[in-house]
Amino acid sequence: METLHVFREQGRSARHDSGGDNGVPNEVEEQAKRAVRDAGIQMARSGLVAGTWGNVSSRVSQREMVITPSGMDYFKLEPCDIVTVDLETLTPRGRWKPSVETPLHAAIYRSRPEIAAVVHTHSTYACTVAAARKEIPPILDEMVQIAGGSVKVAAYSLPGSNELVEAVLTALQGRTAALLANHGAICLGRSIQEALVTAVVVEKAAKVFILSELIGGAVPLGPKEIGIMREFFLNRYGQRLQETIE
Length: 246
Ligand SMILES: [Zn+2]
Prior knowledge:
Layout: H1 26-45, E1 55-59, E2 64-67, E3 83-86, E4 92-93, H2 102-111, E5 117-121, H3 124-131, H4 141-147, E6 153-154, H5 162-171, E7 177-180, E8 184-189, H6 192-214, H7 223-236, H8 238-245
Parallel strand pairs: 6-7
Antiparallel strand pairs: 1-2, 1-5, 2-3, 3-4, 5-8, 7-8
Helix pairs in contact: 2-5, 3-6, 4-6, 4-7
Residues 53-54, 120, 122, 159, 183-184 line the site of zinc ion (ZN).
């Protein structure tokens, strides 16, 4: 699996905002903003997104998440540019407008309590399969371990729409990744690091799926093997995953 280094830039300090009135310590919120800023840079450097497309968020409490602002260059973002958003009301708190996909990120956190981070990518091979409106079958061990099985494709709807939210939540059932028809991929994790690794693994699986089609088609794994590997990843693979991202 491709090694993924989560970018940590030293010496750049966040300007502190007025956090703390929401029950979340300033430090926790600031840390989450830094992690989201770093993950955005990592996504751009890894080629998972280009320009200002895609977005990243992290849950900071049961009530709030922090998310990248709409349409801003990842390499120019400071932690203080990341926007705090109420998961129920979608009310933003920050200096910029939050990502257009804010309703989708919030809906995922509301319906998936185990999820702590969401990344939305426009990577080439995932987009290719998404444009063909096909699902990625369960063809690789690491894919079924981290994503939970096949990566389904959500029916097409315009970015930012309620219809897209519903379609993506449906495609994500029992999974930590989904494709968005003619658009990209969305990947979830119990941490930002895990969500980023999921995005890399989904991109690899999409590439392998496309290449396999050229030589007769991939043979999918069976439900029993998928169940065993997913359980192993969730409950016994933590230390080994940590080693791959350090
Ligand atoms: Zn997008």
